[in-house]
Amino acid sequence: MAEIELKHVSKIYEGGAAAVRDFSLDIHDREFVIFVGPSGCGKSTTLRMIAGLEDITEGELYVDGEYMNDVESCDRDMAMVFQNYALYPHMTVYENIAYSMKLKKVPKEERRKKVLETAKLLGIEELLDRKPKELSGGQKQRVAMGRAIVRRPKAFLMDEPLSNLDAKLRNQMRTEIRNLHKNLDTTFIYVTHDQTEAMTLGTKIVVMKDGVMQQVDTPSQLYDYPVNMFVAGFIGTPQMNFLEADCIINDGEVKLATRLGIIVPDKGKGDMLLRKGYTGKKVVVGIRPEDLYDDETMLSRFPDATVHTKVEVYEMLGDKCCLYCEKNSEKLTASVKSDTKARRGDEIAFAMDLSKMHIFDKDTQMAIVH
Amino acid sequence: MDSQRTLNLKTEVSARPAVHRKKKKASSTAAEWVKKIVLLMASAVTAFPFLWMILSALKTKEEIMDVSAFFPQNPQWQNFTEVIFQSPIVRYIGNSLYVSVITVAIQLVTGAMITYAIVFMHFRGRKALFAIIMGTYMLPTAATYIPSYIILANMNLLNTYTGLIISSAVSIFGIFLLRQAFMQVPTGLIEAARIDGAGHWKTLWKIVMPMTKSSFITFGLMSFITCYNNYMWPSLITDDTRLSLVSQGLRQFFIEGGAYGTNWSLVMAGSAVIVIPLLVLFAFTQKWFINGIGGDTGMKG
């Protein structure tokens, strides 16, 4: 259990390259925080700074109000699960799990009890006498988790723990990690580049890019109210569509002229654009593939928010269809019901759910209105 | 017709690899023989001095200078008993073992600690430190004799084992050898140990050492042999004959009569006796001379 506080933390390497810049975050007790971003965004570095494996160049780190910058990682009481598991090859599974307790001089009997408990929780009881090289990837992963769990640490740090597993195992472990969080009542900090993992596991997600924190929010807030185009594009698959548009006033109404058609935003969004002085300027319209509809009911419901394009690729996914379209060199992806009649080469019209439309500033890429 | 053709084809196809295999086998046996002969010759060259030493130890004083007889006529086994029971050679062996064991133990600890710092700890000047350490390896040992002698003299450690041991408390060769091994240990394991709550000391001895055990053993053995056989430096700083190591002792007691008076068969018997501890050591540890970190490293590749 721990409150972790990062204050203007930066990691600058000797050559002057910054891996993390001015990172400030409060992590509350029992939160499940996810650091997510493309590779090289500084998420792992941030985690390693919390773990004490990297020095903090600037800024301060507090755990439960205690200044931690200069505390050695062995004295921070945090457990970490590594991407490549990092099991001690010369020890059995039992010894691997028990090692941290041995270091803490926990009595042998208690050690034994705790290891067995943990092994049972993870379903690895029959593996306790094996050496790491005799384990499969999934089993190693469980042992690595066991090694962390058994300690009941202040916080769990996980650095892409599932990325070496196959898809099926990854889904299974994801569920187990979520259950663990529920059972253990401890702070989790989890690094991943996989936005699905981020969305399904986190109670708080930190989106990072190029060493800079972009947005910190709950999964649903991130999805519905991304602060900029990067976050909007990073969260959600398929990715959000971005359509360049001229913000114009026509018949006293604010309209957005895209290359696929003119969209009339609802009153609230129009007023916001007007008030912020975007008329006559270029903006970017963001709309998620699942907020585009090709059925008649929706087309008639949103006649002022229709775009016209041409289907280039038709992808049947079973429960839904992905249509990858392009016209006037503007790409558009739509995720529609699987009974759609649209096929490759068809001219097609989509209605946008106007309430789900996002508008971004073209230059700053920041969200203007959601 | 057609079916016959396919059949022919089939036999041809299946026959071809068989021929190929046979040929390969024949050429490989020839290569095996060449290899064996070369190895046999190399072994003979290596083993000959040793064999000669044993044979000479069993000869009489006269026979030894007579090149016409390779084998002794009457093996003089009493040469061995004489050397073992009537000369201080056993004492010298004891001295050598004592000094070597302690020196090696200290070298292993210091070597491991320095290497750990160089490989796993991050501090300013780490690379420079390693360069300096390696630089001293280039220095001829003889060049260090005088300064080392003066230092030991100032510390009043001349003519003591303490002086002898602390003057070889660090082995540069060992640092080099251990560094090669330590660099194979995944950094992730060190980090995992640190996170698990192990300090540097524990990480070194409980994680790094077991994983690089073979290098430790190799280093220990090589260092042991060097210490055991050491001649020049010990004879410079000790002049008390009770403190002599084997090489010194051998010289003092068997060659002191001058080139004409030397009883060569006793010298040979003495030499054979002092090699025994090393041979025993080899017998148990030869597999460790094939060094390398093997097996699973615990990290997914």
Automatic annotation (TrEMBL), chain A:
What is a single molecular function from GO for this protein? ATP binding
UniProt KW keywords = ATP-binding, Nucleotide-binding, Transport
The record's section on SUPFAM superfamilies has: MOP-like, P-loop containing nucleoside triphosphate hydrolases
What's the name of the protein? Sn-glycerol-3-phosphate ABC transporter ATP-binding protein UgpC
Q: Source organism's superkingdom? A: Bacteria
* PANTHER family referenced in this protein's UniProt entry, alphabetically: MALTODEXTRIN IMPORT ATP-BINDING PROTEIN MSMX, OSMOPROTECTIVE COMPOUNDS UPTAKE ATP-BINDING PROTEIN GGTA
Question: InterPro entries under this entry?
Answer: AAA+_ATPase (IPR003593), ABC_transporter-like_ATP-bd (IPR003439), ABC_transporter-like_CS (IPR017871), ABC_transpr_MalK-like (IPR015855), ABC_transpr_MalK/UgpC-like (IPR047641), Mo/tungstate-bd_C_term_dom (IPR008995), NA-bd_OB-fold (IPR012340), OB_MalK-like (IPR040582)
A family per Pfam: ABC_tran
List residues traversing the bilayer.
Answer: none
Domain ABC transporter as annotated: residue spans: 4-235
UniProtKB/TrEMBL annotation, chain B:
- Tell me the compartments it is located in: Cell membrane
Q: Where are the transmembrane segments?
A: 33-55, 97-121, 128-152, 158-178, 216-233, 264-284
Domain ABC transmembrane type-1 spans what residues? 93-285
InterPro entries reported in the protein's UniProt record: MetI-like (IPR000515), MetI-like_sf (IPR035906)
Keyword flag Transmembrane helix = yes
Query: Which keywords fit this entry according to its UniProt record?
Result: Cell membrane, Membrane, Transmembrane, Transmembrane helix, Transport
Q: Please give the Pfam families that the UniProt record associates with this protein.
A: BPD_transp_1
The superkingdom of the source organism is: Bacteria
Name the Gene3D superfamilies on file: MetI-like
What is the membrane topology noted in the UniProt record heading this document?
A: Multi-pass membrane protein
Which PROSITE patterns does UniProt cross-reference here?
ABC_TM1 (PS50928)
Concerning its family, UniProt says:
Belongs to the binding-protein-dependent transport system permease family.
* Protein name in UniProt: Carbohydrate ABC transporter permease
